[in-house]
Amino acid sequence: xxxxxxxxxxxxxxxxxxxxxxxxxxxxxxxxxxxxxxxxxxxxxxxxxxxxxxxxxxxxxxxxxxxxxxxxxxxxxxxxxxxxxxxxxxxxxxxxxxxxxxxxxxxxxxxxxxxxxxxxxxxxxxxxxxxxxxxxxxxxxxxxxxxxxxxxxxxxxxxxxxxxxxxxxxxxxxxxxxxxxxxxxxxxxxxxxxxxxxxxxxxxxxxxxxxxxxxxxxxxxxxxxxxxxxxxxxxxxxxxxxxxxxxxxxxxxxxxxxxxxxxxxxxxxxxxxxxxxxxxxxxxxxxxxxxxxxxxxxxxxxxxxxxxxxxxxxxxxxxxxxxxxxxxxxxxxxxxxxxxxxxxxxxxxxxxxxxxxxxxxxxxxxxxxxxxxxxxxxxxxxxxxxxxxxxxxxxxxxxxxxxxxxxxxxxxxxxxxxxxxxxxxxxxxxxxxxxxxxxxxxxxxxxxxxxxxxxxxxxxxxxxxxxxxxxxxxxxxxxxxxxxxxxxxxxxxxxxxxxxxxxxxxxxxxxxxxxxxxxxxxxxxxxxxxxxxxxxxxxxxxxxxxxxxxxxxxxxxxxxxxxxxxxxxxxxxxxxxxxxxxxxxxxxxxxxxxxxxxxxxxxxxxxxxxxxxxxxxxxxxxxxxxxxxxxxxxxxxxxxxxxxxxxxxxxxxxxxxxxxxxxxxxxxxxxxxxxxxxxxxxxxxxxxxxxxx
Length: 693
Known about the structure:
Layout: H1 9-15, E1 27-30, E2 36-39, E3 44-48, H2 59-74, E4 82-84, E5 94-99, E6 119-123, E7 127-132, H3 135-154, E8 160-163, E9 165-169, E10 175-181, H4 189-200, E11 206-210, E12 212-214, H5 218-221, E13 231-233, H6 256-267, E14 272-279, H7 284-289, E15 294-295, E16 298-302, H8 309-320, E17 328-332, H9 341-359, E18 362-366, E19 382-385, H10 394-399, E20 404-406, H11 409-412, E21 413-415, H12 430-435, E22 464-472, H13 482-501, H14 513-526, E23 543-549, E24 555-556, E25 566-573, E26 589-592, E27 597-599, E28 604-607, E29 612-614, E30 626-632, E31 637-641, E32 648-649, E33 651-656, E34 660-665, E35 674-675, E36 683-691
Helix pairs in contact: 2-3, 3-14, 4-6, 4-13
Signal peptide: 1-20
Pfam families: Glyco_hydro_20
Domain Glycoside hydrolase family 20 catalytic: 174-338
């Protein structure tokens, strides 16, 4: 929020306690009276009985989720949601959710189109009213209220005090999203759901899931062993489906029930999942299924001219399309052979007509410039621009009538753990996004080029739909754990929320970089509905648990997983060797948690999501006590033995397209849930887990 009226310094400071948010609110006019809405244990939520069933999800459904979130940020119980009329003189602090704004013409996108996501809010001493254009607008209004509560508490007001006044808010663009490459890296739906919930807190409304791809190694790809390359197709059809054998690993795929639950969770938080099955390039997984469909010598490319290829691709969509609740899907369609441009365009148009006619869903493609003078892609296909100079040129496409989504790699690309040639940052570059556009201005979805203004467009271009940032996983499962992916995404999601909702150098209310960096850590730590930080609720430096000795195993503790930074200390005496311990299949878990397992053998960490193991390369001496300290941050995990200053890092060796190997550090959450296992014959003493590295 920003202030429209002038007040004395004391009142101004009082109101500004909760002024800056992510994303920033369009307008706020403070009340002429110095009063505030107190969010204490008496607060109640009422949903307007006229609109409780409106929307999908409904206003009433959103209210239930909001209640749970409010309990999370206030750390107190909130009474059950009530359905009723607007209270005239409430006796307790009341939050009233309704529909029907006073001036919908003021709540439009930057291009002038109406937005159902807009809302108005009015705050008095006892009543906080949120009026959405539709239910989704009221939902975003609840995100604003929650952030006001969080920031007020952080500024020393507990219970939270929200300044009285009135305001209105709406997004600048309809598409405000992030993409995750799940084709090259396996993720469980529980993790993806948590990402949805987290992103929703920053008013992100779309989660693009790239659900099929392969880990590239050009030498292997061009040789006889191309089938050995890792590939993923994440949708697991029914066992009697004609495409059932398409899925490489059933344990790395989502059933329809799992994906339906994921979509529902995301939808209940205002986020739509847009699924992508990438063809006719990036299609190694399909070539493994039906080798006759590939271009000879290029198994990642489908031979579109082969009679069975397009029908086979359609059969994949036939099996999976009924799963999807989104109004749009992506068919990928980038980086195909330019010499086959006409075939490519025929493919895109055929798939567009087929998917639209069979499911009434629109399609998107990645922006690939196919040099054909004979054919043209249908303009009802949305193009997701991602690179210059060989890719699409957005301003030219918009002149031709194409709708565009901005995913330009200079501003919006990340790669899991390591970026080849240093071309992408670890997390989105804040300085670039606030001052890297032409003229030293901030980036917004209308900016496609950092150095060529002719490649940019105006914020009100009716064919500019918005932006989606992307995190790719070019190096596969062993490059990162799921939580490491979250560490890369967390701040980036928040900044994209600000830039796609409020723009940059557009609204006077927009955040400065300093403001963003000041409030982001506060909001990140409080984001409700998930615990991707694996926070304990204890202050920094606290001891999570401590045991001088453990007499029996296993020992269960309170926390399933504890995020970095932390220090895990213990002294262990491994049992003497036995015939069974020489068997490689035998592993002794010392510590087990939701996100990691630490084994005695070779001091190995395991990522339970991918079942990959990372060891230090040496075993502790049997029948001898060794003291171990494990230190972790979001960027690394290392061990120190017997008080030595020498550090031993857990690492992974990445094959970078077969050209070279890159050693990278691994970060693991503390495996804090179970200590030891039944029958452990060694000794474990002086066990301690403390917050802080």
